[in-house]
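Protocol step 4 of 6: record predicted structures for both targets in the notebook before any analysis. Target 1:
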Amino acid sequence: MRPTLLPLALLPLLIAAACTPATPEPAAAPTTVPAPVRDREPDENVEVDPLLADAGIAHAVVTEAFLTEMVPENNTDSLASWTAPDGVTWLLATAKEGSKGLVLYDGDTGATLRDIGTVGAGPGQFSRPNGIAVAGDLAFVVERDNGRVQVLSLPDLEPRLTFGEGALVKPYGLWIREHGQGDFEVMVSDAYMAGEDAQGEDILPPLDQLDERIHRYRVRANGAALVAEATGTFGDTGADGAIRIPESLWGDVAHDRVLVAEEDVATGTGYREYSLDGVFKGRSIGVGQFKAQAEGLSLWACADGSGYWVATDQFKDRSLFHVFDRVTLEPRGAFAGQAVANTDGVWLHQAGTKRFPAGVFYAVHDDMGVGAFDWRDIAKALGLRETCATP
């Protein structure tokens, strides 16, 4: 092909056009990827997270025996342990978010053994599991968004039963009283609300509607099956005994006592003392003493009725664990770890294990993992008994 020849008169115009900078295209707006937003809990109503470093509370520091792997997507909430027939200690943790329901750890080392379950509403599936407790060879798991409690057998972790559907609105914590072989009384806290305001914040129900904060069930073996029966509800409706935001609870049969965490900071966070039949006993523990938020609690119990309560104050930087006398509920001291922070659930494994001959106290660490404290270290730091045989 022959080249096209341009007239010389056009060359200056073409050169000028070539040297004129082109008008730039408008820049595209940057694409913002939203950060994951976690489901807000009813108790997450403070604007500034309180810090133990600023609280000025005297306490001992106990170094953790181990910290598990931190997995942010789990949003770990509650813990329970079980001793297998071969003597191995299992530690089960609920994962409120992610693709699983539970995480299984080695209770002596903190090593992750496996994940359990998937997300859903079927047997062996979970939707925002919160509280967990072990009784006998059964694990009871509270599922907030399925409005139920699911029971798994141990060690196979196969689903055996669900109950509470249609009655539980926003269940969170539980305590189990074993009446005999295959006979359990289960108390479940229910943080139902009266809707949301214009900002999407939960509206607390009026006092006269707080009489169903705790649901009772009886779970029994019926041959090879398990059956559950609802046996009532309770909750005080007076200003002093009402539970505005419930979650954790634990009972002490020997002293006719059920302690229920009141997580409403505006009212005064602490633990309401109820009788086993659901009557407020006129006393709240830790109100004014707890500076962050009352969370998980557990009981170190001896056959003679003595022992200790261990209760969590959920500071963001490091959790503080208050110890109370089992009988009098008088304070016996407080301790914190080197790292464990922002704790929801705790579990006290009082029986000796291969690594922890005097037992071990487990605490959720910042929604992502678990820390373990050797009970011997706690007892030494606070001048407590190591075993029930210790004077």
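Target 2:
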Amino acid sequence: MKHNKKTICKQASVFYYDYIQNTELCTAKPEIFHHMKECTYCRSEIGKLKDILAETTTEDVSYKEKRVSIVLDSHFALANREVTCGDVKEFIPGLAGLLSDIRILTPVTTHIGNCSLCRHDLDAIVRLELTSEQLANLEQIIISQKAGRNGGFEFSSDMINETISSNKDISAVLKNFLEREESGIVTEYIIKEPTGSKSSSNFHSDYNDCDVRIVVRNLKSQTADEASLSHNRLGRNNLIRQLAKPLSAIAAAVLIATWIFVGTFAKAIELDDIYKAVGNVQNICMTIGTSGDSEISQRVWVSEDLNVKVFYSANQWVLWDIQNKVKRSLTDKSKNLKTVNLNNTEIMDVKQTMDVSLTLLPFKNLSLLPSSHNWELLADEEIPTKLPDTQIYDLSWSSKTANGALVYYKWRSYIDKDTSLPKRIENWQKYSLSEEYVLKNWIDITYPEGYEIEELARKISLAAIK
């Protein structure tokens, strides 16, 4: 087997910290361990790391914080360049082991946050619950796999069985992860220094008031120009200077508390999760408004359990009781209850409107989703509307009208982290890439118990609604 020295150094870098802490407990393979002891470059890097760690006491920085700071250092090496799935893959094992501790936006987490396949990979690795040693071995395999494509180590699937696990289920997950092709998502985490500042290639130099721009492109669905116009996000964030301080300062102060990235990657929510969750809803209340107006235009309750629908708008209540085949209506002022019987055709029409997925979801089913769509997890600071315990996603796509005009759509959803159910939906449109999106309507959503809707229907039937 042919060894490439540069590749071995990269493999060894994973174990620098363990080597410093306790050489006897270092989990590196014997050849890697020996390389660290003999290689001039690795000894130099280990020496630098010792100096960095010496700048803070053990009272200031925990073992895990130091590990996280090292991971962050490697993440920011990808700043100011295009990042693909292949670039991110080798960082996924490290993130799986430190997932709850890295909650800041980095060049790596930026890509994962915008790439559904990488989020799926990370979720799959986390669910395997591998040990630290197994994750380190997986990282070595990925690095070896990359090198194999460039004439270095030869990659073999037997490495999984030999160094991680012979369990067939685990091996199958890891094999899919290692062989998965590029998604086409390319991200750039661009740090721009203020005008007049000195340039530096070291991202841990002390920048002040840096501009951070995140560019997301889907090479499989859009041209570069279209993607740049539709997905560039530019924001001044003074917290970047905290991320750009010396490594020891990051370890001591920045790791968990600053610039919190939305959600936990292992729990990233996919469109399929939302469609399944909505499909299982039995009772729902939807409060609907139009445009940017905060006033409510209508409110709708639907209960699959009770087979009833309640509608309220302009001081008028309407109850459709499918089981009893009646429609009841009254106004707030008159309290005059009107009851009419429903025929089978009317019942079928009402049943169709009780399919809440047609109101909440952008497409009847995912097979109708345009291939050029983009599904993007947003950061909290980008959105003025705040809802607790949610992740905010934008689904964007374009389609032509009957007269051939191109319309750009954006479906923004505020999704409950635990249930994958939407708490709020916003529908936006624009008619050219250079325009800003305009809010067309919004829906606030709650999920009442069946007895609550039953009580509402009872009050309408008795003309006792207030």
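Step 5 preliminary note on target 2. The mean pLDDT is 76. Residues 269-466 form a domain with the outer membrane lipoprotein receptor (LolB), chain A fold (CATH 2.50.20).
Proceed to step 6 after PI sign-off.
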